[in-house]
Amino acid sequence: MERSVNADPFQRSDSSDRWTWWRNWLGFWFLGLCNNFGYVVMLSAAHDILRKQESGNSTLTASATLAVDFQVRNNSNASRYDCNPVSTAAVLLADILPSLSVKLAAPFVIHAVPYGFRVMICVVMTATSFLLVAFSSAVWMSILGVIFASFSSGLGELSFLALSTFFSRDVLGGWGSGTGGAGVAGALLYSALTQAGLSPRITLLTMLVVPFSMILSYFCLLVFPTRLSHWKPSMNDCLVSCSEERERLIEGADEGREEEQEKPEAVTPEPLSLTEKRDIIRVRNIHTSDLKNMSVKSVDPLVSCNQSLLKFMFPLGLVYFAEYFINQGLMELLYFPNFFLSHAEQYRWYQTLYQLGVLVSRSSLCCVKIRKLWLLALLQILNAVLLLFAVGYQFLPSAWLVFVIILYEGLLGGAAYVNTFFFISKEAKDRQREFSMSTASVGDSFGIALAALVAFPVHRYFCSL
After folding, report:
1. What is the band of 247 on the pLDDT scale with cuts at 50, 70, 90?
2. What DSSP letter does each residue of 36-57 carry, written as one string?
3. Quick one: residue 309, left, alpha or beta (phi over 0 = left, psi -120 to 50 = alpha)?
4. What is the DSSP letter of 239?
5. What whole-number distance in Å separates Cα of residue 154 and Cα of residue 100?
6. Region of poorest pLDDT, from 306-315, 372-381, 454-463
7. Closest CA to 440 of 183, 165, 237, 240
8. What one-character DSSP code corresponds to residue 4?
9. How far is CA 168 from the centre of its chain?
10. Any residues with CB less than 8 A from the CB of 417 and at least 6 apart, and which?
11. Domain boundaries in the chain?
12. 158, 17, 3, 150: which is closest to 91 by C-alpha?
């Protein structure tokens, strides 16, 4: 029977030591929180400072979401949807492109950068984004702050997902829960501090504790395998250790069997070549007749038969495409004028319930695992179609029903994210796992970017009615 993936031999003490298990789980929880928390907070603050630069008003109230404040709108707008002059998709597109760029390029070269340096790059860039937006005197400085935060978030996500391959697979539950909590905690804390009377600038400066917390989480909280170095690429060392230990386990398991079986020769794994990395991503159909003519070593464990990485990336991308098409293309148009909440308040509750759904489902890995990722994608697409028709024909009776649908949307999105990386970690073999985890993270970013592009014409069409 195949051993549990990620329960690598040099980590056996982690499984028996509950304190070590909790330290690693909490470490990845805080890394997930810090990686996304600063991004959420900085984007909300960027809106406030951009508005301050345009209006000259230094006493603006902070928005609790990543969207444009609906209370500042064009008075000449006669649309039945009470449209904002600029779609929130514009903000989303500016936010996601730097992250998407780094996720597309980094997996092919990032293996040469040790994890300790990656963490410090993320910390410096997050702190720089806070400082740029806090002290910005021009629009371009705030935009540059957005770019730094987006780049840091993308680099951090692919790096920490890859790092999780050196720990028990349970840490993915901590990572998912932390990233889910960042959306809720970031928006609420920023809103609370600014509502308490702190200016956006002072609030941002207090948030410099976030990158410092990332340093503590990585260097002080995590219990690393002894052969994993912070400051030099050491994947081969870990794999060699793993390979040698597996040889001993195989030898022990085969005791009492036919003695003429030769012990497999320990081979030092080489880093993945660009061709191998390409083959892991692409669809590759291998027929049974072909497998008979191939040696075991020549078959790539991840891409043989139907095990292409794309089978994980496509469903994840579809889920996030439908999800952010709803969030940035439709959510601001789901307005109920006779409801007791204003348009701005309705939108903020939509966003809050969405983040709560993401938090719950990303924290659910210890309770339930969903292997049918395509089902999650289909359900999310049906969600988007339903709300698209609801915007066009306005047949939903109340915002209460929309609240339920948005909460359900968040549950689907969070479940798709955490289960995608769980099953990649489970199915990918030792040599491919680190690259596979970091590369698959491009799926959600690509879906978000595509959603932003599609949301533009949809927003303009409905606002012209």
Report:
1. very low
2. HHHHHHHHHHHHHHHHHHHH--
3. alpha
4. H
5. 7
6. 306-315
7. 165
8. P
9. 19
10. 176, 179, 316, 319, 362, 444
11. 16-54+83-224+305-464
12. 150
| CATH number for region 16-54+83-224+305-464 | 1.20.1250.20
**Local structure of 368: helix, strand or coil:** coil
Token digits of residue 259: 């003695």
Q: Which helix (H) or strand (E) holds 3?
A: none
**Mean pLDDT within 46-65:** 49
DSSP 327: I
Quote the tokens at residue 168: 């028990």
* Residues 6+ away with beta carbon under 8 Å from 279: 300, 303
Residue 157, classified by CB atoms within 10 Å of its CB into exposed (0-12), middle (13-18) or buried (19+), is buried
Q: Phi, psi at residue 269, to the nearest 5°?
A: -65, 140
> Quick one: tokens of 191?
């809103």
User: How far apart, in Å, are the Cα atoms of 212 and each of 121, 206, 337, 384?
Assistant: 12, 11, 44, 39
The residues, ordered by sequence, that sit 6+ positions from 300 with a Cβ below 8 Å of its Cβ are 276, 279, 280, 284, 432
Residue type, 461: Y
Residue 405 has pLDDT above 80, yes or no: yes
Against a cut of 0.90, is the pTM above it? no
DSSP string, 198-238: --HHHHHHHTTHHHHHHHHIIIII----TT--SSS--HHHH
| CA-closest candidate to residue 136, choices 192, 193, 204, 198 | 204
Alpha-carbon distance of 433 to 238, in angstroms, equals: 13
Q: What share of the chain is helix, strand, coil (3-state, %, to 5)?
A: 70, 0, 30
Query: What are the DSSP calls for 107-144, one per residue?
Result: GGTGGGS-HHHHHHHHHHHHHHHHHHHHT--SHHHHHH
Most distant CA atoms of the chain, gap in Å? 87
Q: How far out from the chain centre does Cα 90 lie?
A: 20
Amino acid 93 reads L
Q: Please tell me the distance from the alpha carbon of residue 383 to that of residue 373, in angstroms, as a whole number.
A: 15
